[in-house]
Amino acid sequence: MPSVKIKNSQTGEEKIADLNEEQIEGFSTINEQSIDSSILKSFIDNLTTSAQTKVILDSIYNFTIQAGEVIIYVGRKIIELLTYFANKYPSVTIGGLIGFIIGTLISTIPFIGWILGPVIIPLTTALGLVAGLATDLSDSVINTAVTEGLNHVFGSYKGAKV
Amino acid sequence: MNINEDMKAFFETKYIEKVFLDDLKFKRKLKIGEGAYSNLKTAKDLEKYGASLATGLAVAGSTYAVWLASLGILGQMGLAVGLVSNPIGWMVLAGGTGAVFMFGGKSLIDSIDKNAFEKTPKYLNTPIDLLGTTFFSILTPLLLKITSNNGTLSLENTDHIQNILLEFGYDKKYIEINLYNSIQVLNDLDITGVKEKIEAISKKTDGLEAHILLTVVEESLNRLFDKQGNKNNFRILNNIMKQLS
User: How many structural domains does chain A have?
Assistant: First the structure.
């Protein structure tokens, strides 16, 4: 299993991650652009949430990990998933969906949680989530669909050690 | 599950980029000469033209009246006196793309972008786009009604309708998205007051003759009816023709 030097774009912190071939190949899934940038920006701009939440989401959009020579656009993919599921399931509250996606990634995938760490407290505060970021959505069908979507993109990194 | 492909497909069908592929076809069909439609050429203020069409249609058709009623009294007053910030956004909700939202009822309105009322959709750039959207919202429900069977539409008839609309120069994606949306609420589509709506948009648009529009609509319906397989819909066609005469 090759060791890859990774760098957190937000903190500048560097670590060594042991990544297998599947995980390295998975970078292309994360970097594949599925939704036009203008749609993502417009989605954040038009959210009916606090300005603080929008600022945080905007900063997440720019989160990247540098693995060796490759830049992995992790934040952009998270915002893509958020935009997609918010549009597909308009009945879910946006705060709940943000909390669920970020909460699930942080709690289950340390590799991704490593760069999302700095936003946990400000995001929890901005969304007014007293009990912290969610790990469940009230609708089980939507819950499964979102979880599967996250797994497809980030699931292979569950065992990645950083 | 390939989420990336799902996301691409979802957003490809969700966003319209333009109304027309070739607006000259539309102008030719409706016999809108370059010198004739002075207010379309001079209407630099798209919103002013939009307000004019919106108020005309609101008075003309039950379709628009129902939609207008849903806006509440302040919305109606605002629209009537041109005070709303952007009548085009409202119009698009009412007709064309918005037909589905209006006919689908309040639940669908609740699920869409709340700012739609405040924004001019990106694909509406000129008065001819606006006229095209409005005409589309009048013609398409008629085409759907005379080809549907028990609230469903065959793929073959969907193709026939697309081909008719392509002849007007509409962009294929614009047609596909609007047809898809309209098919979802096929049973609720309103086909009353067609003549009044056509007369209203003609009245608000210099050089656009109502009798030409009526003839074009009649011709399109007759041609489509001959191609489609459901002869049981003759009664619907007949009722529409009576309205138009």
Answer: 2
CA angle B165, B69, B75 (to 5 degrees): 100
pLDDT digits (tens, 9 = 90+) for A83-109: 999 888 877 888 889 999 998 998 889
**Residue A139 CB: number of other CB atoms within 10 A?**
14
Q: Which of B109, B11, B122, B17 is nearest to A81 (CA)?
A: B11
Which two structure tokens, joined as six digits, stand for A68?
A: 């060796």
Same domain, yes or no: A51 and A99: no
- The phi and psi torsions of A2 (rounded to 5 degrees) equal -70, 145
Query: Could you write out the DSSP letters of every residue in A89-146?
Result: -TTS-HHHHHHHHHHHHHHH-HHHHHHHGGGHHHHHHHHT-TT-S-S--SSHHHHHHH
Cα separation, A98 vs A78, whole angstroms = 10
How far CA B7 is from CA of A28, A46, B3, B13, B108, in Å, comes to 16, 19, 6, 10, 21
How far off is chain B from A68, nearest CA to CA, in Å?
24
Using CA atoms, how far apart are residues B7 and B17, in angstroms rounded to an integer? 18
What is the ipTM for the molecules in this complex? 0.89
Burial class (CB in 10 A: 0-12, 13-18, 19+), B239: middle
From A53-57, B127-131, B237-241, the region with the lowest mean pLDDT: B127-131
Which of these three, A16, A46, A76, is where a domain ends? A76
Specify the DSSP class assigned to residue A14. E
Residue B34: CB atoms within 10 A of its CB come to 10
Q: How far apart are the first and last CA of chain B?
A: 53
Chain B residues with at least one Cβ partner in A under 8 Å: 1-8, 10-11, 14-15, 111-115
Domain that holds residue A21: 1-76
Q: Searching chain A, which residue's CA lies closest to the CA of residue B9?
A: A34
Integer CA distances (angstroms), B4 to A150, B12, B62, in order: 11, 12, 43
B58-69 in b/e form (b: 16+ CB < 10 A) is bebbebbbebbe
pTM given for the model: 0.58
Interchain CB distance below 8 Å, A84 and B115: no
Final residue of a structural domain among A76, A97, A119: A76
A147, with CB counted inside 10 A (0-12, 13-18, 19+), is middle
Q: What is the DSSP letter of B100?
A: H
